[in-house]
C-alpha cells in the first residue's frame, strides 16, 4: 500500500514538473538527518553538475532539526529518517506550513561491533537488554569475557527513534550509554573500542566496524525490501507545502530511477525500485 502511494506521488511530481512553464534557477537549502546526508550530498553533486546555475547547500543536524527547519521556513527541503510526528504536524499547521513527505529511499539500521569481536548475530531481545543495561558482558551472548560498552544516538535523531520503537519497544537507553550525534560518530566510536556495540544506517557500513545479523537475518538491500530484516525504514525528504521550481526539480531528480535512485544505491542505501 505504501509503495503504491509513493509510486503515485512520484508520477504526480513528474507530471507537475512537466506541466510547469518555467522556473528561475537559484539556491536550494537542505537540512536534517545525518542518515540521509550522504544521499543528499551525492545526488546534489550530480544535480549541480547537470544544472550549474543551481547551488545546493546541505547541513546535517538530525531529523528533528530538518523537520523543525521546514516548520520555521528556514530550509527548502528537510531530510528525515523517520516520519513526521503528530505534534510536529500541529506545530506546522499553526505556523501556516503544510509539510509534504517524499520517500526517497529505504534503509536498515545495522548493529555494529569492533572487528575483533567474535559475535556475529544478536536477537532483538538481546539488543534490547544490552541497551537497557541488563546484559553487561559479551560472554552472556556468546562473545568474549569483556564488558559491553553501549553506544547510542541522541534523542533528536530519527535513527534513535526507529531503534527505540523497533528494538527498545518504548524502553529507555540506560544512563551509562555513550551518546553520539551522528552515524559517522557512532561508527568511529565503535571502531576505536573493542568492547563497544552501536547501530548505524546501512550506507555507513565500512571495514572499520563489523555488522551483526539480527535474528539471523543480515541487513542488506534485499532483506530490507522483502521485509525479512526487522529494523528497516523508509527515508524522507519533506517540503513546506507542495514544492515548486528548483526544489520540485531536485526531488524529481532524487526519485528518478535512472538518476537519483542509481546514485542512492551507489552510496549504500536501498533504492525505491
Q: Any idea what the CATH superfamily of the largest domain is called?
A: Periplasmic binding protein-like II
Describe the oligomeric state of these chains in a short phrase.
Answer: single chain
What's the pLDDT, averaged over the residues?
A: 90
Run of helices and strands? HEHEHEHEEHEHEHEEEHEHH
Low-pLDDT parts are 1-24
- SS summary, helix count: 10
Cα-atom radius of gyration: 19 Å
Briefly summarize what is shown.
This protein is an alpha/beta fold.
Q: What does the model show?
A:
- The chain is of the alpha/beta class.
- It has 2 domains: 2-106 and 234-266, Periplasmic binding protein-like II (D-Maltodextrin-Binding Protein, domain 2), CATH 3.40.190.10; 107-225, D-Maltodextrin-Binding Protein, domain 2.
- It is 37% helix and 22% strand.
- The protein is built from 10 helices and 11 strands.
- The protein has helices spanning 2-19, 37-50, 63-72, 86-94, 124-131, 158-168, 183-191, 221-225, 245-255, 260-266; strands spanning 27-32, 55-61, 77-80, 99-113, 121-122, 149-153, 178-180, 196-201, 210-211, 213-214, 232-240.
- The strands form 2 sheets. Strands 1, 2, 3, 4, 6, 7, 8, 9 and 11 form a 9-stranded mixed sheet that branches.
- β6 (149-153), α6 (158-168) and β7 (178-180) form a beta-alpha-beta unit.
- The relative contact order is 0.22.
